[in-house]
Amino acid sequence: MSSKNKIALVTGGSRGLGKNMAIRLAEKGHDVILTYQSQKEAAETVVKDIESMGQKGLALQLDAADFNSLDAFVQLLAQTLQSKWNTDHFDFLVNNAGIGATIPFENVTEEDFDRFLNIHFKSVYFLTQETLPMINNHGRIINISTGTTRFCVPGYSVYASMKGAIEIFTKYLAKEVGGRGITANVVAPGPIETDFNNAAIRNNPERKTAMGDMTALGRVGQAEDIGGVIAFICSEDARWITGQRIEASGGISL
Question: Collapsing DSSP states into helix, strand and coil, what is residue 232?
Fold first, then answer.
């Protein structure tokens, strides 16, 4: 396949990091299917941005918290690939969809735990398993983790634990899909100024300044700092990188 025809699936692509990932992939000449949980209009706006670059774009609804909806989503994905692209395969899977919450360990409920488990680990694990036969040889799988698997932020015990599981899973995945020339890597952002976790950084100037001061580059991240990393990993130049945790955090807590 020529690079012009390659197709990326980006979960959680209606806003924040996922939106920038989708845009940067389109800038590199790729078509993009993005998912949204509830923000349909925002997702359609991203699709229009992708199409304005001359690439094909499409938005599909996916609620990663509802594990039982996964099979139906994969069937819809297959139908969409056939109807819009006349193919049953795609090239890049970016497991980005996620939620944030700052919950002190002693306050975590089983409901909190299960929601984070479903969204950040179980759905990622099985969406990857179910779509793997649809991913072209020499494709890419990118899982999004967090700087908080390396350093601790109070209230992130559930979130970071699930992301820690993702990091181990990605190593095993890289080993098991490598025979098909598919790479699997983790990108771990540091603190980013988006609306993630109720815009915890954007809405708190003191926290933003404090976290920026903890980085080697002296600021918190922007969504634009991450999308290009994803686009690079999906490029031919990154074909020899697999099984790695790539932290894009401006050098926080070195």
Answer: helix
